[in-house]
Design goal:
- The structure holds two protein chains of two kinds.
- By secondary structure, chain A is α/β, with parallel strands linked by helices.
- Chain A has two domains: 5-70, Chemotaxis Receptor Methyltransferase Cher, domain 1, CATH 1.10.155; 81-281, Rossmann fold (3-Layer(aba) Sandwich), CATH 3.40.50.150.
- Chain A has helices at 5-19, 28-42, 46-55, 59-70, 81-97, 115-127, 145-153, 158-162, 167-173, 185-188, 222-235, 273-281, and strands at residues 103-108, 135-142, 155-156, 174-177, 180-183, 191-195, 208-213, 236-244, 257-262, 265-270.
- Chain B is α/β, with parallel strands linked by helices.
- In chain B, 41% of the residues lie in helices and 12% in strands.
- Chain B is built from five helices and three strands.
- In chain B, strands 1-2-3 form a three-stranded parallel sheet, sandwiched between helices.
- The longest helix of chain B is centred in the N-terminal third of the chain and has 10 residues, at 20-29.
- The termini of chain B are far apart.
- The mean pLDDT of chain B is 90.
- The chains are: A alpha/beta, B alpha/beta.
- At the A-B interface, helix 8 and helix 9 of A face helix 4, strand 3 and helix 5 of B.
């Protein structure tokens, strides 16, 4: 039976309180699609599942509902352009600038099942062999503990590796394990994977040279978007780079970021940082 | 048939061949003006299998511009390696979705409307 408006409100309220995610009216279909598998797994209907959620006595159930509603579609090399920008401009500039400290810190703020951080790791391995002698850390955070476990494991089904991953890179960086493919230890050793809610207070994460926060701001209300961008600005290095999703922007949310157009792609930097880079690159 | 539907849905014209030999003859009949942009090649075909077909295509300089995706149930690393070394541009393992095919086409520079 389709969910009622009252049931939709129960889910809306819970997901906003737990994760500051805004479910606009009209997204009933999304709730039904995402909670259907949970209900089937528990041997009940979606309506009964939401009834249990309303009782509020099962913390683990609300955790699972948050996970089901926040798991996003992802793919290796998703949207391509950010990784081209990373390769062509961002990494050469950082590598030239930090050749003395030889430390590179990249944060994937909503790493989902890990395709984005593994794509970044492959880009580094493939095009920047000099990083072998660097201290590289790709911090991966996601609200879902299930996604954190998956990213740590680095195993993907045939369908998942079919999405966006070039066959030569699959052969080079993944090992066959039964019916699945597992990321090579040389990629995994750069990943530091943690569970974290972007809408809650953040633990100490350390300064970041590059932040990927793609396709996640769209789920939050304006105040939460502003808060996340301000906190990213606090932890990004003065000359660091921020990548947002194609449908996302800092405009109207944080005027201390400016956009940088590179080829057909682009990213964001804290105001004034780009001028320093232009001088160094030219 | 599924592949035909996927390709037609994104605006491609599709010709099918029942085996590798027929496929190669068909390709040669289109030289020099109507050589297609892409060949989706199965591994297991009678008369001339997928690897033999790719070898024949790559030995013919008039088919240089043709891109090839091996599309197969064969999932061994050694088979994938062989297909790529022989001249396939990409490799798709069944089962696949329309998105898989479109992603692979974008990866090898086909105009499929993805960024």
């Amino acid at each position: 039976m389709p969910i009622t408006s009252l049931e939709f409100d129960v889910v809306r309220k819970m997901i906003y309180e737990r994760a500051a995610i805004v479910l606009e009216p009209g997204k009933e279909y999304l709730v039904e699609a995402r909670l259907g598998p949970l209900a089937r797994a528990d041997g009940c209907t979606i309506n009964q599942l939401i009834g249990r959620l309303r009782n509020g006595t099962e913390r683990s159930l609300s955790d699972r509902v948050v996970e089901a509603l926040t798991t996003n579609e992802t793919a290796f090399f998703r949207d391509v352009k950010p990784f081209e920008t990373l390769k062509s401009t961002v990494l050469p500039e950082i590598i030239a600038r930090k050749s003395a400290s030889r430390q590179l810190n990249i944060w994937c703020a909503a790493s989902s099942s890990g395709q984005e951080p593994y794509t970044i790791a492959m880009t580094l391995k493939e095009h920047f062999p000099q990083l072998l002698n660097w201290q590289v850390r790709i911090l991966c955070t996601d609200i879902s503990t299930e996604m954190v476990t998956r990213t740590k494991l680095g195993r993907y089904s045939q369908l998942e590796i079919g999405r966006g991953l070039p066959a030569p890179m699959l052969l080079k960086y993944f090992n066959r394990v039964g019916l699945e493919w597992e990321a090579a230890p040389e990629l995994k050793r750069w990943l530091d994977v943690r569970q974290m809610n972007l809408a809650a207070p953040w633990p100490t994460l350390g300064k970041q040279d590059v932040v990927f926060c793609r396709n996640v701001l769209i789920y939050f209300d304006v105040d939460t978007k502003r808060s996340i961008l301000r906190r990213i600005r606090d932890l990004i290095t003065p000359e660091g780079y921020l990548f947002l999703g194609a449908a996302e922007t800092t405009r109207g949310l944080d005027d201390q970021f400016e956009s940088m157009h590179i080829g057909s792609g682009g990213c964001y930097r804290v105001l004034g940082a780009g001028k320093t880079v232009e001088r160094r690159v030219s | 048939m599924i592949l035909r539907k996927i390709l037609e849905s994104i605006g491609f014209e599709v010709e099918q061949a029942e085996n590798g030999r027929v496929a190669y003859d068909l390709l040669c009949s289109w030289i020099p003006f109507d050589v297609p942009d892409l060949a989706l090649v199965d591994w297991n075909m009678p008369e001339m299998n997928g690897i033999e077909l790719i070898e024949a295509i790559r030995d013919n300089s008039e088919l240089d511009a043709l891109k090839i995706i091996m599309c197969t149930t064969e999932t061994e690393v050694s088979q994938m390696t062989l297909a790529l070394l022989t001249g396939a541009n990409e490799y798709v393992m069944k089962p696949f979705t329309a998105e898989t095919i479109i992603d692979k086409m974008a990866l090898i520079g086909m105009p499929v409307g993805t960024s």
